[in-house]
Structures are given as C-alpha cells and as structure tokens.
User: Fold this.
Amino acid sequence: MSRALLAGGVVAAFLAGCSGGEEERDGRPVLLPTTERGGTSSGETSTGPDEPSPAPLRPERPGAGRSLGLEVVASGFDSPVHAAVAPGEPGRLYVVEQAGRVRVLAGSRIDDEPFLDLTAEVTSEGNEQGLLSIAFHPRFQANSRFYVNFTDRRGDTRVDEFRVRAGRPNRVRRLLHVGQPYANHNGGQLAFGPDGLLYVGMGDGGSGGDPGDRAQDLSSPLGKLLRLDVDDRGAGWEPIAYGLRNPWRFSFDRLTGDLWIGDVGQNEVEEIDVLPARRVGELTNFGWDVYEGTRVHEDKEPTPGGRLVGPVSEYGHDLGCSVTGGFVYRGRDVHGRAGGRFFYGDYCSGRIWSLARWQGETTGRGHSFRVPELTSFAEDADGELLLLSRDGAIYRLARRG
Assistant:
C-alpha cells in the first residue's frame, strides 16, 4: 500500500477526556527513560509493551522551578486557540480565535479589523471544533502564502491555502478535506518543519476509544501525522506517524529539529511523544488505541509497518485531563533558567511542566504558575515562549524576581 494519500481530497481533543480531577499529588508527571517499546518495523509486530517501568523524576535543585513566572502580553481575545508569527514580521502575532477569526497583535495593541474572517464557513459548536491553527509559508515574504486548519459547516476538517494580495487574504486552493465521523478529536495543528514541508495533526475521528480503529488503520488519514510539499502541485499527503488519539499541539525544536507531540489521552493518561530529527519521516506508530500512554488500552496487536514508540513523559488524570503540547524554549530572556527545556501543560488544571533530555535521559520539573484553560503555546520571532488562555489572555514566560 502506498504511504501517499491523495492531495487535496482525502475524504474519509483538545478538551477530550476532561473527567479527571485536579487534586494534587506531588504535582509532577512521570518521566520514562526510553521512547522505544521494542518496536515494529518492516512488518514485524511486537508481542507487548517491552518498555521499562516508568521512572520517577530525577531531583532538581531546590526552587529550580520557581525562578520563572508569567507576564500578561495582551487580553481581550475571543477564545484564542493558536498563534504564530509570519516570517519577516517580528512585531506582529497572528492570533487564531476559535469562532473563525485571525486577529493581529501588533506590539500590545489588537488591530480592530481581523486579518482573516471565516466565521461564515466554520462550525465551532463543539468545544473541539472551529478555526484551529494558522501556518505561514517559510518564504511568506516572497510568496505571501499561508494555511489554515478548520472544521467546516459539516464538521469536516479542511486545510486551505491563502495568498495575501493588496493587503487582503484570498483563497487559492483546498489542500485537504477529511470527513469527520464525530465532533471531537479533530487535531488541528499546522506547522512547517525544518524540511520546508507542511505538517498536520489528525485526531482519531472522535467518540471514545477509537470505535472505528482508525488510528491503527494505515488506509485512513485519521489518527495520523501527515505532511505535504505545498510547493509541488502534484504531491500527495504522506503519513509519517500513526497511532495518535488527538495530537492537539506539536512543534519542532527550532535548534535541533526534533518533533515534540502532546497527544490527548482517553480516561487515564496524557502523554508527550518525541521524534528525534533523524527519525522524522520514518513511519512511526505511537500505539493508540492498543496503548494509552504506557498502559494497555485494548487487547490486540498494533498494526505492523511502523516503528512502535512509547511516550517520554505521561501524567494521570489526578493532575489534569487534556495535555497541551508546547515548545522547546530557545529564547534569550530566561535562557539560563529555561534554555533547552520543553514546556507543556494541561487545559483543565492549568499546570505547567517542562522537560529536558540529555544523552537519552529525561528530567522534568513542575512550575508554580498556572494558566487557566490553557489552549496553546506559541513562539515569538525571538523564540520567547507565549501561553494562550481560552479566557482571552496571552502570557509570556518571564523571570521571577
């Protein structure tokens, strides 16, 4: 079977599983010493989870997680769920509002007129539907092209290309149309990788427990991470990963090219997955719905064909209910305290954690600040870390004291 899916015509949470409590244990996720499950490749199927038992967090120096805080950048947005900077426009942040608008934050001021308004085309009735992300072409200054991911009036996933002409966005073409069987687990992230290709995260199609077994079905675009060469009109979408439940937010480390994914769990476990840069493009199976994190979810064999990989970190629903993936911090403002750490959090509890990987080991820490209804992270042009709240505020990671 070809790994390529038809370009522009594949027809087929971030709040998912919000049933866990917020009562605190030690406030720390579990870190795993390896990402390998004893995986599959070339049709070889593993017989079970071979990964070591979860390892506790390695000790951090006292107060290490308390030297950072947040400062408010702006407020007044309507359910912001994503933000991005266009290449060549360092002073402007494009903020995606779930109902269908993209607003521009210029410095500390929100432009009165939206940059893009798709409210007439978008459904956001479900709490996981709507206008979900925006990505600018790496050569945006030359070609004025950008891309948006949204659920249309039928509830299906669309990825459309736009081009700015005379200061106004104009639709160029539809790149992807995926029929959604349910209103949840829509994924929604768009991002260009270091390879210049456009990546999109697709949830498993929704409901609970992946009733259609779509995440492990290599013929379905659902439960996959897909990529496309947008500069090649004849190219098709290529799946590079499967076995994902709802990869609401993922990002590439701007220094190393490693790919970090926050995959929303079912009833028990939220997980963070990592693909080293050298592995991006190799077909990888993250295990859902055979596994939820490191736990067996369904008694069956994973679909052969891809290398089977487990998470580098997971946490239970006593600490939250829906993971929001973030970024590896590569800015300068708080580099000594946060440099090289992957920051992520939870939508329900607002908790923020960060991970560091060194020579195959992962260490982590919890931070004392929280963001209510944490929908997304973003980077500004300098790599400084931004955090978005559904209540309308945007925060910046900053020094404390």
About this structure: The helical segments are 140-143, 335-338. The radius of gyration is 20 Å.
